[in-house]
Amino acid sequence: MNAETKLPVLLVEANPTQSALLKLALNRIENLQVHHLAEGEEVIPFIQKNRPLMVIIDLFLPGVNGLHLVEQVKKLEIPRRPRIMVLSSLGYPVVVRQIAQIGVDDFLVKPVNTDVFVERVRKIIKEQVIGRSL
């Protein structure tokens, strides 16, 4: 990968403070192009058009059920669907089970430790880049 290649990542977070914190953390990863959406309704069209490597989705978005949105992303019929990380302020066992049943790539309870967040995003991006080059 050359130095000018930017790897697209989509952050879906409605809370301005949380999105600012997460974008700052993501900026610690070289060669990422971070896109941000605050509205869940925009996610599917954005993914279809821009094909991000990874989507980071908060479960609590205005007007959209976050779990349903994750399921829609997983069902997209596009080459190489993006990897999915779910963020939630609820770490209750029932929520964790629902997320696990959907089959996301990672799950973090908010507030996130930004070092752990960055480490996990790096790992997922690396796996996705290697998979795309095969």
From TrEMBL:
SMART domains: REC. CDD domains: REC (cd00156). The modification 4-aspartylphosphate is found at D58. InterPro entries: Bact_response_regulator, CheY-like_superfamily, Sig_transdc_resp-reg_receiver. Residues 8-125 form the Response regulatory domain. Keywords: Phosphoprotein. The keyword NADP does not apply. One of its GO terms (biological process) is phosphorelay signal transduction system. Pfam families: Response_reg (PF00072). This is Response regulatory domain-containing protein. It comes from Ornatilinea apprima.
